[in-house]
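Figure 3 (text version): structure tokens given as input.
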């Protein structure tokens, strides 16, 4: 799934791409592998420990041309219009309070004209038991507003991006939410 996200982010030529809330860098490494050799690939996370694991995994995979940044997703330390693509895998639902909205505004600010944001999230299961377990997980992580986001994700992305769309990936357990920087 993470490779699918990276491939979609780099289908068009990217000069600079950001993996937001990158954790241990699985998507960051996939971006490095699928982006042009001269593209700048950045992994950003608030956790120094996660970034350290990402650096080690990238080194072990022979991927040294990745920049790692420790920062808050709701206060990106980048100039306006820097990134051709920003991706975020499995983190939107876990952002608490107004952080998600602020992060989306920061994403839009940091995207270049015509730049794209792609977020991968779990699709809400249709079968009763997996749906119950999914709801339980949301309750346990305490993601304030996560349930509301589930029904309004397209609307929330549409507040800061244009041409927002959703693609469910086979076998139907994950989806990619995508949109473009407004002109």
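Below: residues designed for each position.
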């Amino acid at each position: 799934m993470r490779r699918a996200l990276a491939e979609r982010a780099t289908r068009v030529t990217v000069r600079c791409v950001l993996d937001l809330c990158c954790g241990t860098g699985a998507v960051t490494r996939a971006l490095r592998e699928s982006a042009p050799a001269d593209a700048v690939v950045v992994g950003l996370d608030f956790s120094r420990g996660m970034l350290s694991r990402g650096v080690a995994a990238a080194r072990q995979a022979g991927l040294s041309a990745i920049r790692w940044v420790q920062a808050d997703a709701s206060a990106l330390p980048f100039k306006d219009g820097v990134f051709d693509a920003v991706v975020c895998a499995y983190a939107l639902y876990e952002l608490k309070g107004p952080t998600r909205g602020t992060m989306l505004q920061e994403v839009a600010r940091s995207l270049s004209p015509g730049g794209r944001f792609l977020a991968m999230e779990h699709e809400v299961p249709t079968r009763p038991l997996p749906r119950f377990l999914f709801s339980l997980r949301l309750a346990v992580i305490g993601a304030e507003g996560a349930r509301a986001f589930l029904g309004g994700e397209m609307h929330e992305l549409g507040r800061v991006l244009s041409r927002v769309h959703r693609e469910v990936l086979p076998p139907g357990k994950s989806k990619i939410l995508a949109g473009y920087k407004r002109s």
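The chain has a mean pLDDT of 90.
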